[in-house]
Write a structure and sequence with these properties.
globular, eight-stranded parallel sheet, 8 strands, TIM Barrel, binds pyridoxal-5'-phosphate
């Protein structure tokens, strides 16, 4: 418990510092705890410390944790690739889907979200560095996808989710994030409800905050190194 508490405090401090250095209010940046591969009891420990938002990439694993932690008031974000056969469970059990890169998936989520539920919060995933291997739409496709998504009643467009190419140099990291922020501002100009720029992970958290991130998605720095032996 103390280890998890130390990590949690450390990240909150890092967010605070990065915000202050850029002249931003620390509470304008939300922390999403990325909990893929970690068991439900680890998430529970973090929830006790005050963390309410969790991000998951793998549906089956996520559904088990959502059920195991149903007694807590948590907010669940789906951040992994979404195929058609996953939309029903995502629409039923999640509060956010951040990895939308096709209208077909958005339409299915809209159809499968029930009237009793609050709208599903949506981020469009952007492939900001135009990498061949990466999912996400290219920057020049964001506005047209947004225009389609805002027509759907059971979805609420909240912003962009960005995963830049791997760069260790801070200036290079910031250049990608800056382009993402510019795109975010264009989107916000068209759709005032847009308030979320989800960018920044363990390795590039401060660069993302310096360039206007409103939500950092942190896994390794919060939970430790993931065991990837069972998964690619
Ligand atoms: C795994 C993952 C993260 C967290 O990455 P860390 O480097 O462990 O902080 C953030 N965003 C997405 C989309 C991920 O898949």
């Amino acid at each position: 418990m103390t280890e998890i508490k130390n990590r949690f405090n450390f990240i909150q401090q890092a967010i605070h510092e990065a915000a202050k250095q850029s002249g931003r209010a620390p509470d304008s940046i939300r922390l999403l705890a990325v909990s893929k591969t970690w068991p439900a009891d680890k998430l529970r420990q973090m929830a006790v410390l005050g963390q309410a938002c969790f991000g998951e990439n793998y549906l089956q694993e996520a559904l088990e944790k959502i059920e195991a932690l149903a007694d807590l008031e948590l907010e669940w974000h789906f951040i992994g690739p979404i195929q058609s056969n996953k939309t029903r469970d995502i629409a039923a059990h999640f509060d956010w889907a951040q990895s939308i890169d096709r209208f077909k998936i958005a339409r299915r989520l809209d159809q499968q979200r029930t009237d009793e539920q609050a709208p599903l919060n949506i981020c469009i995933q952007v492939n900001i560095d135009n990498e061949d291997s990466k999912s996400g739409v290219n920057a020049d496709e964001v506005l047209s996808l947004a225009e389609q998504i805002v027509q759907l009643d059971k979805l609420q467009l909240r912003g962009l989710m960005v995963i830049p190419s791997r760069q260790t140099d801070e200036a290079a990291q910031r250049a990608s994030f800056r382009r993402a922020h510019h795109l975010f501002q264009q989107l916000q100009h068209q759709y005032p409800q847009v308030d979320t720029l989800s960018m920044g992970m363990t390795a590039d958290l401060s660069a993302a905050i310096a360039e206007g991130s409103t939500m950092v998605r942190i896994g390794t720095a919060l939970f430790g190194q993931r065991d990837t032996s069972q998964r690619q």
